[in-house]
């Protein structure tokens, strides 16, 4: 078991937690040699001599063999990680945005420099989804990955479903309990879920999807009336990230959309800030992974697992990696519910056919079939008046 | 990807299912060359020339590089597997009893002959528990594996808890629905769970436990009155297999016991024939694996995943394997509920202290602390009059 000398970027709650665990557990044979932070004058719960504001104090130190990157600025993180690879240091990161945006480039650079790049903490907190996907093989014939990958929105949706709260009240409750940030855009608009789906999809199918190609709508337009409809019909509403193979060529569709889920389905058991992911393959039964998806401790625990794995020279094999870029197949169709308070003119034109239409003084909805092509229509996805919910 | 020529032992529902999938999916690059069965005259859904009653038709055929063993006779399976290793064939098996009884010897033989030995199907049907444990490392500091690993008993207990059925009625329902065998002893007395726990424990902790050292009681003594008590207190009753580290020396306690589980705990979500396992470590959050635990399809799917993995030369690394034999540490104590209809003389002597004692005309119970040493007392574990349930 080799000794890990760690250079840590960022000393927020996760960084401090990791520092403490490594101090407490000498058995891990890993210690932090230097911590690079932005603000040197802030009080820190660690010896002063560990800190620096100069990234090169880590990157140019040949004794440091592992970089743990935990900063929020993804542009700065990008250049730190690239430089770490070139300096032949292993990297552990939790930065999903950065990884989703530069995934193939970073993997290439990592391989060229023969180091490990582990990022379990970037997806679903403490749920070991990437390590699990690594245990599948090309010929396991994976069909889909379907799940709740964002704890913030799941917390809000659980409040809306179970306590009949409005979106705004549920958001406030999430912020008060530390499950949503002051600016919640990345979570509630589904960007965070799309980043995670992109990372998951590469490990599941060997295919890189661009964030812009993910059909994505967040949860900000959902109304209590939508949840009333869901309850009447035995559903709940979840923000589901889903990549699935839609034809024999292996074409994928990737979506992050509010989804009606039957209450007796496994995924409906996933409540509050928890995450849960189903993995479907032709050869084996559907697998379900479940765990704590948001907050400090799950992130720290995933980072610690990655650090621990480095001592055994663990690296992702990405057995299915291909350089194929996903081309969205627009021939598919989805069953969609659109809910709205006041009549939206021309709304029926989005549908190929309409199955159910309900109009009343207080709320209206239409259910019918919409093509993937139409679903990419910005008027449909961006219209704040419309609750858009697909059926599982 | 190498071509797999498979020799199949056994052609029951699982074997036939695997044969069909391999025929249907040429992409898998695996085909069955020979099938050894006991009764040559039975009608089989496969070409006649595939069948033989002579094991050597597989074992002596150098073109066959994989043996898939699916027979119920564990003594016959033992000699087949040993001979297959010596002939340098990879082996896939679903035979938990055989593996639990000869685990270390088979692993040694496998390594000596440089072949793979995969047996995901032997534990928890389609839930990839072994592959998951393989992704943990020594320094991940696993603390416990805690779960429902037997679908038959979980189906019976779910009926008893939710439909208020007696043990006998619930057992009949399980048999009628194909979830229990005509002779259910191995399942309902907890032997099957103990075998699986032994296999899991080796992969989790590197420690082999002998079946006789597992503190085991099945579900046959449980009464509807016990479930009434559980409901009143917000519990359900599950048969829990549990290996956990109890001190700094890494000593383990391994138990298969009826257990009160709070209804809001993750493990209480596991109902009917499903299995669910929690993995706890010092470094990361508790992980939860869940899936279909009994029946033909889950077993076939796990066997197919193993076959698929062989094409990539996958083998268990058993990173934590030690040859240490578990010594049960008898100094531990458990909180135990004993339920009984008619007074059992001296029952209070099992307890170190008594927390609650309830007596009535129809049913009685005592709750208190019992030492592990006392729990190994055959009078306590084997007395059919006593419902023994531990608290989580």
From TrEMBL, chains A, B:
Pathway(s) of this molecule: Amino-acid biosynthesis; L-threonine biosynthesis; L-threonine from L-aspartate: step 3/5; Amino-acid biosynthesis; L-methionine biosynthesis via de novo pathway; L-homoserine from L-aspartate: step 3/3
UniProt GO MF annotations: homoserine dehydrogenase activity
Domain Aspartate/homoserine dehydrogenase NAD-binding: 10-120
Catalytic function, reaction form: L-homoserine + NADP(+) = L-aspartate 4-semialdehyde + NADPH + H(+)
Keywords: Amino-acid biosynthesis, Methionine biosynthesis, NADP, Oxidoreductase, Threonine biosynthesis
EC number(s) from the headed UniProt entry: 1.1.1.3
Residues in Homoserine dehydrogenase catalytic domain copies: 128-307
Keyword Acetylation applies: no
Transmembrane segments: none
Membership in a protein family: Belongs to the homoserine dehydrogenase family.
Protein name: Homoserine dehydrogenase
Gene source species: Faecalibacter bovis
